[in-house]
Amino acid sequence: MPHPATWRTAKAAACTLALAAAHLSAHAVVEAGHWRFTQDPAGQFGNFSVLVDQTVGGDYTGTFFDYDPSAGTLTYKTFNVDEGSEVWVTQPGAVIDNRFKPSLQNGQTTAVVGTDFYLGAATSSATDPGFSWATLSNRTSFGWAHFRADSSGKLTLVDSAMAFREPGIVVGTLSAVPEPSTWALMALGLASLAVRRQAHRQPRQPAGAVANAA
């Protein structure tokens, strides 16, 4: 029978992992959708506009491009004058967060995307807790969208998702990026389980072994 201390360690590890899972799920607001687009050759600000929701309830912000299907290029034109968003080319499995945001607005005016591409977006809302125009670059909501063009150049929004008031999202999934505190809780729980396994593997001396050795 396992030693009582081993059971206590296992129980503590399980509680820690459960707390980490609860912490993650309690804060996760990740939903499919929340992206829209229009494609209009006579568009005033470009022939391709991307609209990203800034909150779960909507409140979209727009970014405008020219898409050239023959060259497979996407050229930035302008964006809505509100909280705005950063938009960039990405790929499945990438993490969309505040650490790396090569924006199409800021320097990378044209990108080669082909006819099947992913865009990432980082945005925020004035309704976010602690929102400040002075720290607008510290975004609070992140998302991705998959676009595909047919032989005539007509675009289709294949799939998309947004993580609202989250540290980030993994492109191509509905998985939010855990906060550092959640990672710490999970690491602590896993470490406790490792200690339990180590203790369980240690052989025990049979009863009377010490007396016989003496």
From TrEMBL:
Residues 176-197 form the Ice-binding protein C-terminal domain. The keyword Signal applies. Residues 1-28 form the signal peptide. InterPro entries: Ice-binding_C. Keywords: Signal. The keyword Signal applies. It comes from the Bacteria. This is PEP-CTERM sorting domain-containing protein.
